[in-house]
Fold this sequence. Notes:
The chain is of the alpha+beta class. The protein has helices at residues 2-12, 64-71, 81-90, 115-127, 133-150, 154-167, 180-185, 188-198, 214-225, 273-285, 291-298, 330-347, 351-364, 372-384, 391-400, 404-414; strands at 23-26, 32-37, 43-51, 75-76, 79-80, 94-99, 103-111, 204-210, 246-251, 256-264, 306-312, 317-326, 421-426.
Amino acid sequence: xxxxxxxxxxxxxxxxxxxxxxxxxxxxxxxxxxxxxxxxxxxxxxxxxxxxxxxxxxxxxxxxxxxxxxxxxxxxxxxxxxxxxxxxxxxxxxxxxxxxxxxxxxxxxxxxxxxxxxxxxxxxxxxxxxxxxxxxxxxxxxxxxxxxxxxxxxxxxxxxxxxxxxxxxxxxxxxxxxxxxxxxxxxxxxxxxxxxxxxxxxxxxxxxxxxxxxxxxxxxxxxxxxxxxxxxxxxxxxxxxxxxxxxxxxxxxxxxxxxxxxxxxxxxxxxxxxxxxxxxxxxxxxxxxxxxxxxxxxxxxxxxxxxxxxxxxxxxxxxxxxxxxxxxxxxxxxxxxxxxxxxxxxxxxxxxxxxxxxxxxxxxxxxxxxxxxxxxxxxxxxxxxxxxxxxxxxxxxxxxxxxxxxxxxxxxxxxxxxxxxxxxxxxxxxxxxxx
Length: 435
């Protein structure tokens, strides 16, 4: 089996170097999907997204969607958790369930010879989860342990603090796992309601890659997903980004401070997104080749690493960065970041920086396509972001089309040094703690 997967990964890794044949498939029952056929290996990956994710937690029920997702394979139909796991393993199938702010994720891999049985088992998990009392308490205890551990993790504290400042009472503003109090109070009825709210056909995105035809995929989709409810819970409103500029210090006894910083970002469908993407690579997204790594680490030794990232979510956009620095030097590192943010906003980038970024971004893109699972994941992500079906084949050309003027224009528009909020978790010298 390992050799089969390795062979398939090798075979398909070169796909973006040539045209990728992505087919639009609509099942007889009206379920849409994208498909890349590859029949040389008897193996396929199926990727399913339900839009909404933990943002669909009902008021006062924070953590219900996360707990529900963790329970899906803890028993289904007439199988308890152990019996379900044995049935899956006997088929050499792989099922993964996860959830994020904007989507619930179902990833499945199966051999062609076991496809029907694997799909039947997955259908049982999606449509007939048991939510047994003993499984609920076992998984609830695991989630509570994670929440308690996260409360002692400075990186998690920084993220949660920034989110609370940015999004307030919106679901984005709180931990998707919930709190000790909210998770402890969840009932089986809350979990059943979360399942009904999230797993619905009106928020469904699907892709498949591997040894399966369009006709076979259409039949599979109706069989697997056709009995799900037509509609789920209403989607939340957009989040108002409300971060004020400045520094917020969270006291944490540690020899170094963790810093998360940022301000409002740019939408994924903005015409300037590719220019912003290239700009960010130069500023802080390009590892050791980025400006911030050069200025903050290499020249001054203020950190081991610093990075920045554009985060266009479904209901808000943020431009963020992160680093850690010793308590006695973190204030200096913050000032260097501010200065580089300002320099990018006013000066843009050089021709050499632009060409180096393009070379890296276009050359590394094919490396993402290293197997049927990653490709299926990319395809379903494209659908959720509203990208055209030929995006895989046009993406590098869009990167190459970015000019110096494009970057300078978008830098002046997107970079807002005066709006930066720095959340500092530690005991930094020279920075006033929050009240």
